Amino acid sequence: MILEMLRRGSRVLKQSNPGQTVTFRKIVFLLMLLSIALVLVFRNSSEKSSTVSGISLKKWDSFNSLVHLDPTVEFRNGTDLISQIPDSPRGVLFLAHGCNGRAANFWDKSPKCKNCVGLPEERLVVLHALARKFAVLAVSSTRRCWTFGDELLKVKDIVKWWIAKEKLEKLPLVALGASSGGHFVSLLATKLNFSSIALMIAEGMFGQMDISASYPPTLFVHMPKDEERKQRIDNYLVVLKDKGIDVAEIKCMEFPLSPSYFSDVIPGIDRSISVKLFNLFKEKGFIDKNGYMTKDGRAIRWKAALQERDITLPDKSLFHHIQEEMNLAYAKHEMTSLQSEEILDWFESHMS
To answer: Which of 15, 173, 256, 277 could anchor a disulfide with 291, C-beta 3.0 to 4.6 Å?
Structure first.
């Protein structure tokens, strides 16, 4: 329609005096700007589509040319710790898992780590960090979830011991904790000198601590679909800012699945199985016509659906991997690697 208007306008101006050519060009330029603006408005009119824009989806093997997972497993203070140090590290990243998690979730199973699991989001978080030259240290909680008493002192000792052992004392120390691990990191930040921290799907324990101006810059990485948590985070953003602490947030929104999604992000799932999963989930109403999850993956009997359809996975452990990605796509409460670059940018912006 706009092009037709321009053609008609061109014919009219050609029949008029030549002095109107400049005016016509201005009109064309303004109409082009208007059309671009309209495209952007319609593109952002849907929250679902706008939240996906800007997110760089990394496939499970995206980092093969840059870095490989090569963990070192150790044991100290009654728990296991797993680490990896890239060449010429520029910082140290401490990782704290959520409830039911463990350090082994962040690295693939290998001869060096026979108990490692390599959950898709956790492993990508580590790969992102290693590619950006962060030494990575993950510690397992001694119970199902992190506790906030003696465990804080035990982990403080582990982190300081490991940094000294690896001669990394001169490097900035940062931390990322998810869910229970996010609450833990918020308290650990009063015990260790982090240059900045990121709390993922967690509002932190700020209501139970005295916050001083020396508290590290804090990034909240959260999923607004969890409205109660979002309200608490909104409150703490104000509280911390009023204390003179640098704060920011990253909102993680739902996104649509595609037929190849599971094979793109999960090692061990090939495209044919991924397509079968996608088609089955769509047929069962687990995802809508646009590919969005209709419920959190935890609330869906998708494993029973696989058995009914006689879809067999190469390894039973992959159930956990698929579950994680379904939860992530629904975007209410799950570990995510999708915003890793933004999180690492935050860390680097506060490293002196």
So the answer is: 256
